[in-house]
Write a structure and sequence with these properties.
The complex is a heterodimer of chains A (about 90) and B (about 160). With about 90 residues, chain A is α+β, with helices and mostly antiparallel strands. Helices cover about 25% and strands about 40% of the residues of chain A. Chain A has a five-stranded antiparallel β-sheet, with helices on both faces. In chain A, about 35% of the residues are buried. Chain B is built from six helices and six strands. The chains are: A alpha+beta (about 90), B alpha/beta (about 160).
Chain lengths: ~90, ~160
């Protein structure tokens, strides 16, 4: 799996707080799934204050991406298989 | 699960560094490493390249720190239950630091102790709602307020856990 930073992503929010990211996902995405910190999405374990909301809109995934020096970005990436993997979590709940 | 990096029975502590943009971080991390070693606990520095490099060049003879871990690898080891530590000390001065501390608290059963500092330490500290021990002080350039608080609570923290 490719590194997130090398993928074709769109930045929806930059230098955001974890709350802003969660609120954005819940109010702007067609559907969302809550995951725990450490959930593996693409090639990374997710960082955040639980619950971490991942947004879904067709094959598009919206998720927070945190780095110590750059804060949290809310990224949007189109990836059918990863979207299906996240959507399957919702069905299991 | 508690497995220290050496594979022996000694206790270990991860010192999880944030962005090194606040000057006190490196000094306090070295002082905490020294204090932990005095208590017989081996410190392991987890941070990004710049944060690790600042510690690395400040302690060339490895008096205080011998082990380093990339921050992403540290999270991966915890998430995949490959390695854990007896304590996690998380350095926080911004929202990202709170996110890392919450993640570590969710991934590890070991005690999480957060050191909150910087210009906005009160606001940042108020964002922390998960269970942890907090050491907070307005320390930006002068590490002494944070050092004093650390000296007050560290012996109690490591003896009570």
């Amino acid at each position: 799996m490719a590194c997130v930073e090398s993928m074709n992503y769109e930045i929806l929010l930059r230098n955001a707080s974890f709350r802003e990211c969660r609120d954005y996902v819940r109010s702007h995405c067609a559907e969302y799934v809550d995951v725990s910190p450490g959930y593996r999405l693409f090639d990374m374990h997710m960082i955040g204050v639980p619950p971490i909301s991942i947004g879904l809109d067709g094959d598009t995934i919206v998720f927070p991406f945190t780095k110590p020096c750059y804060g949290t970005y809310l990224l949007k990436i189109e990836d059918r298989s990863e979207a299906e993997k996240v959507r399957a979590l919702k069905k299991r709940k | 699960m508690t497995t220290n990096p050496k594979g022996d029975e000694g206790k270990t502590a991860a010192l999880v560094l944030g962005c090194p943009q606040v000057p006190v971080q490196t000094g306090i991390a070295l002082y905490l490493s020294y204090s932990l070693k005095k208590e017989g606990i081996e410190p392991v520095i987890a941070g990004n390249r710049a944060a690790r490099a600042l510690i690395d060049i400040s302690d060339p003879s490895r008096h205080y720190v011998e082990k380093f871990l990339d921050l992403d690898l540290y999270i991966e080891l915890l998430a995949e239950k490959k390695q854990d530590f007896d304590y996690h000390f998380v350095f926080i001065h911004n929202d990202a630091g709170v996110s890392y501390a919450a993640t570590i608290q969710a991934l590890s059963p070991a005690p999480v102790i957060v050191l909150v500092y910087g210009e906005h330490f009160r606001e940042v500290s108020d964002m922390i709602e998960f269970p942890c021990e907090k050491i907070a002080a307005k320390a930006v350039h002068n590490p002494m307020p944070l050092r004093r608080k650390l000296d007050e609570v560290l012996p109690w923290l490591v003896s009570s856990q």
